[in-house]
Amino acid sequence: MRNRLCLATPVMLLALFGGQVMAADYTVLVNKMTFGPLPSELHVGDTITWKNADIFRHSATATDKSFDVDLPAKQDVVMPLNEAGEWDFVCKFHPGMTGTLVVLP
Ligand SMILES: [Cu+2]
Asked: Ranges for the EfeO-type cupredoxin-like domain (predicted)?
């Protein structure tokens, strides 16, 4: 029992604090025609759940067209982060809605 604990602890710590070891899901609230704050520590393998609380359809569309996520009214849409990079994005229906997505390796 004691040996098993000694082995398990470093693995658990790595999983908890390694950042890149465990994928995480982050929720970004889209509300009142605004994208909520994006997490600062997004990594490849994580997912974003866009939660559109508005009665309007929105989108999260990269200005370089790398991604284009449709966000129907009152729905959640999951977006996997498959690539590291930095993208400015906009709602294609409401060009005043903007944000920047930064994904670390
Ligand atoms: Cu919109």
From this structure: 25-103
